[in-house]
Write a structure and sequence with these properties.
The longest helix is centred in the C-terminal third of the chain and has 22 residues, at about 345-365. This protein has helices at about 10-25, 40, 60-65, 65-85, 95-105, 125-135, 140-150, 160-165, 190-200, 220-230, 255-260, 275-285, 290-295, 310-320, 325-340, 345-365; strands spanning about 1-5, 30-35, 45-50, 85-90, 110-115, 135-140, 155, 180-185, 210-215, 235, 245-250, 265-270, 305. It has a 7-stranded parallel beta sheet, sandwiched between helices. It has a 6-stranded parallel beta sheet with strand order 10-9-8-11-12-13, sandwiched between helices. It has 2 domains: about 1-160 and about 345-365, 3-Layer(aba) Sandwich (Rossmann fold), CATH 3.40.50; about 180-340, Rossmann fold (3-Layer(aba) Sandwich), CATH 3.40.50.2000. It is of the alpha/beta class and about 375 residues long.
């Protein structure tokens, strides 16, 4: 069977690779054509577009790169029409993937969507597009199941993907020397350029801590090196050190949930282009930006956004979450979140659902 998978972000590339791993267990001779990165390539995907050609964030940034996005859309449609895969799997990346879902359905290719677009936060009118163009939707947050089912979308929740990737109960590694604060400036180059310089400004104010930047492979090492040249910090291209850190400054995104699984107190930060921020304030209808706070519907961890994301607020917020009283409260809430998320096994269950549907469809077609 031939699967065509489109992801435009690092987390989607990782999730896609785990799904591919499980799909191969159902059918070892399966074929994958992919939009993504190193994770899916290592699973044997034939890469037709890489993440650095895809990851644009914010209204202004998308407008600025509109020609590249248009070219990608034209290529995707031609490529899908030429290859005629058995199924299209879309992973998050909604602005682009909605257009591809519409085209795939038009030419008769089944569409499964993994990691739902956050229509509960904004652009709820896109529900009709999901209903019309997506055969099955696999969500990763427990409350999304009810939200989409109530709107007549064929929806499944099998737990959060991170529970298959991260071991929730990891014993802390004892390290000698200063306690560690991790800096996670994001998975896109644009985020790193914006977030990391502000995060780094804190390092001279908290000299009793060791600062470690958790880097991603999809961002050039040279960019990190240019940004840190005036600071005494370390670069880590692996997350092995995370279980031993005392706290983290985290760019809002999937990493905030990762910190909760690892029981790391965190301060969530984000800063957008000013025009993008103004537009976001008009359209986005949620109180919180971090998944931790969204899942609990309360302020479990501090959020520093836009002008509030500055050196004074970072220092105050970090010192607060490091205090035993506040640290214990945060971890207590994290434990509750883990119970909400359910257990591991999400990729195996999704792959079996996709494969059985696809195999059933092929068998039915053969008997007509």
């Amino acid at each position: 069977m031939h699967y065509y998978i489109i992801s435009g972000e690092l987390s989607g590339d990782l999730y896609g690779s785990k799904l591919m791993e499980q799909l191969k267990k159902n059918d070892p001779d399966t074929r994958f054509t992919c939009w993504g990165g190193e994770y899916m390539r290592l699973q044997g995907g034939e890469m037709v577009r890489s993440l650095d050609q895809l990851a644009f964030l914010g209204f202004f940034e998308i407008f600025k790169n509109s020609f590249t996005i248009f070219q990608n859309l034209l290529f995707a449609k031609r490529n899908i029409k030429t290859l005629r895969p058995d199924i299209l799997i879309l992973i998050d990346y909604p602005g682009f993937n909605f257009k591809i879902a519409k085209y795939a359905k038009k030419i008769g290719i089944p569409v499964f969507w993994f990691v739902a677009p956050q229509l509960w936060a904004w652009k709820a009118n896109r529900i009709r597009l999901l209903r019309k163009y997506v055969d099955k939707l696999f969500v990763v947050l427990p409350f999304e199941l009810e939200y989409f089912v109530q709107r007549n979308i064929k929806t499944y929740y099998f737990g959060h993907p991170l529970l298959d990737i991260i071991e929730p109960k990891i014993l802390s590694i004892t390290l000698l020397g200063k306690p560690i604060i991790a800096l996670l400036p994001g998975s896109r180059e644009q985020e790193v350029r914006t977030m990391l310089p502000i995060m780094l400004s804190l390092t001279n104010r908290m000299s009793s801590y060791r600062f470690v930047i958790i880097c991603v492979q999809s961002v050039k090492r040279s960019l990190y090196q240019d940004l840190i040249k005036d600071y005494n910090v370390e670069l880590k291209f692996t997350k092995d050190i995370l279980p031993s850190v005392s706290a983290a400054l985290v760019t809002s995104g999937t990493a905030t949930l990762e910190m909760s699984i690892l029981k790391i107190p965190q301060v969530v930060c984000y800063k957008l282009n000013f025009l993008t921020y103004l537009l976001a304030r008009i359209f986005i209808k949620i109180k919180y930006v971090s998944l931790v706070n969204i899942l609990m519907n309360e302020k479990v961890v501090p959020e520093l956004l836009q002008h509030n994301f500055n050196i004074e607020n970072m220092e105050l917020a970090l010192k607060r979450v490091l205090q035993p009283k506040h640290r214990n409260r945060i971890i207590e809430k994290y434990n509750f979140i883990l119970k909400k998320l359910g257990g591991p096994g999400c990729f195996e269950k999704i792959s079996k659902t996709i494969y059985s549907d696809l195999k059933g469809g092929i068998n039915n077609a053969a008997t007509k």
